[in-house]
């Protein structure tokens, strides 16, 4: 099931994006030798970097360029920022449990998060997070945001250790909850760190509605990158309709449109896809 349709990417982005279409190719030529990765990986990194650099997302997670270390990516960000016309230090590499995120600090500062829906996985089945859990999530998220932003101006070229921030600030919410907030998901799974195994079991037993953005590159009428899902999040189908309706204007549509606008400016054909995943069809591990 698809919604939103494909958006043609032959026009330049609005002035506020502030990047030329050729920036993508310049980034690919920069990243490939600096990161020592295959061209296909360099193109994927360039795609995500232009979206985060232009403010389409607060961050992206590098879970596909396995051979590119966090430190290598951090050292390249100064030149990446220059190419993307982003102020030095705006984009930084943040590491949590050996998972690398590239974060736009300016955008992160604006992400208070309370316009997002929280789904608790601490009970026997998914349910809307109660007041106590909500308060804990927003309290911990504020501490994390403040600590990360404070470190953005320090030691440019180094990584920011999110595990240290979590320990120092007594953060109780789980890494998957933190990741969902960093990645701008309109719906975030909320649970404490000690409930990770239980939460994965609850989610594995649930029917899910999965939203994703897929895209492929088109240059001079030729497809130069295959169509693939690049960003995505899920919500339990049992109450997806209600929650999607309540977050559509400020959540789901914004999640799609901001990234799609920037990708389209770089000649990507973009679509918003929705599909259903039956309970038990895949094992979820946090």
Q: What would you say this structure looks like, in words?
A:
- The protein has about 290 residues and is an alpha+beta fold.
- It is about 40% helix and about 25% strand.
- It contains 9 helices and 12 strands.
- The strands form 3 sheets. Strands 1, 9, 10, 11 and 12 form a 5-stranded antiparallel β-sheet that branches. Strands 2-4-3-7 form a 4-stranded mixed β-sheet, with helices on both faces.
- Helix 1 (about 25-35) crosses helix 2 and helix 1 (about 25-35) packs antiparallel against helix 3 (about 70-85).
- Mean pLDDT is about 85; it is low at about 1-20.
Short description:
The protein has 286 residues and is α+β, with helices and mostly antiparallel strands.
Q: Percentage of helical residues?
A: 40-55%
Shape type: globular
- How many angstroms separate the termini? 27 Å
Low-confidence stretches: 1-21
Question: How many H/I helical runs?
Answer: 9
Number of E-state strands: 12
Mean pLDDT: 86
Share of β-strand residues: 15-25%
Q: What is the ordering of alpha helices and beta strands?
A: EHHEHEEHEEHEHHEHEEEHE
Radius of gyration, in Å, reads: 19 Å
Largest sheet: 5 strands, antiparallel
Structural class: alpha+beta
* Total domain units: 1
